Every structure is written in structure tokens, then in C-alpha cells.
């Protein structure tokens, strides 16, 4: 299985960060509760539906230095299903941010975040300027964060939900969930690429890992309608 390297040759130029990327067909997202053991094996379910911080999981896995590479960011109309989850009017703009989560320079996860305009105010205004910082490190260090249940999808590796430089031959599992902080909503989707290696056991997701998450946040700053469930914080 070949990793998905993020090299200078594949990185988008800074001028392209604000260009819109057209997604003609969305993955077939379905609520986690609709997946039975026959359609989602227990070994897969363990890590795919883990509601702890993915940033902490990747920094703990011991498979290389964790970093975030921003691929795309622009103000645009979210995808139809994203508008439904965020309960947005049909033409309301949101800030869409796409990044690659990397270990030793190889992309292991593609993440797409959608921030409604109304959520980027007050104490969350700084989320407009994340650059190459980890969003997860910020979310999971916030005491008032709530995470809703996952939606899951198995998508083709060459689907246009994935940026061209992260597309692959094999299908990929994705998940997404809505977060709320002080009544402000945002949506985070994550696709696990073929270079991703699942963790083999349930890892702790408590506040003792906050230091590791904070360290990942600092490292990443270097260039390079379900019922809510209270998620574990780091």
C-alpha cells in the first residue's frame, strides 16, 4: 500500500488557497446507527467511530511527526447535505477549509471543515485564521464543546470529494459530525486515506492528553438533527 505523500510538487500554490473547488457528487453519508455489524466490522467500527481527538490519536500513534497542511480555504455555499446538518439557508456562505493531516510528510487523513458566518464571531473569530494549525486541538481543549453523532460513508478513492492530489486507487472510509461550542455550529468531515494505519487498541481520551494536543497545535503552526453527545475532551 503506497502512502499519499504531500510534497512541494503536489502542494497547492498560495494563490489557489482561495479558489473554489467543485464537488459534483457528494459521498453517500448515512447515520452511524444505520450500520450493522455486517456492514461495519467491529475492528473497523472501533477506530472509525472513536469520538476522541483525532489529532491526539495521530500524535500518540508513534508513526512519525504530525503536521497539518492547508490545501484550500474560501467563502462558498456549502454542499447540500452540509447545509442540512448545519441548518443553513440555501445560499448562505460559509468558510470552507480543507487540510491534509500528515505523519512524516505523508497524508493519512483528508479533513474538510465548514464554518457558518454566524459561528465565526466572538471567541471563535480566530478560527478564520487557523493557517496550518490543528482545528481538532482547539475543539477538544474547549470545555463547552459538544459533538453530535457521526455520519459515515465508504467512497471511491477517485471521487471528487477528495482533492486531486489526494485521490487514490482504493476506496476510503469517511466520517463527519457537527460540533457546537457555546451554541455555534461547525461541521468537520474526515476521510482516512490508504496511508492511514488504524490504532490497535482503545486509547484514553481524557484531559491528561491535553499537553500532547497542545504540542501538536504548536507543531502544526510551523509552515509546511441527532441528539448531541458530550464528547471526551483532551
Which terms would index this structure?
single chain, 234 residues, 5 helices, alpha+beta
Overview of this protein structure:
The protein has 234 residues and is of the alpha+beta class. It has a single domain (42-220), classed as 3-Layer(aba) Sandwich (Chorismate lyase). The chain is 16% helix and 27% strand. The chain has five helices and nine strands. Strands 1, 2, 3, 4, 5, 6, 7, 8 and 9 form a nine-stranded antiparallel β-sheet that branches. α2 (54-60) packs across α5. The model is unreliable at 6-18 and 205-234 (pLDDT under 50).
As for the number of domains, it is 1
Rounded to an integer in angstroms, the radius of gyration calculated over CA atoms is: 16 Å
Order of helices and strands: EEHHEHEEHEEEEH
Overall geometry: globular
Q: Report the sheet with the most strands, covering strand number, pairing sense and barrel closure.
A: 9 strands, antiparallel
* Average pLDDT: 80
Proportion in helices? 10-25%
Class derived from helix and strand content: alpha+beta
- Number of strand elements: 9
Spatial separation of the terminal alpha carbons = 32 Å
* Low-pLDDT segments, ≥5 res: 6-18, 205-234
Oligomer: single chain
CATH topology: Chorismate lyase
CATH-derived architecture: 3-Layer(aba) Sandwich
Number of helices: 5
* CATH superfamily (homologous) name: Chorismate lyase-like
The top level CATH class name: Alpha Beta
Q: Beta-strand percentage?
A: 25-35%
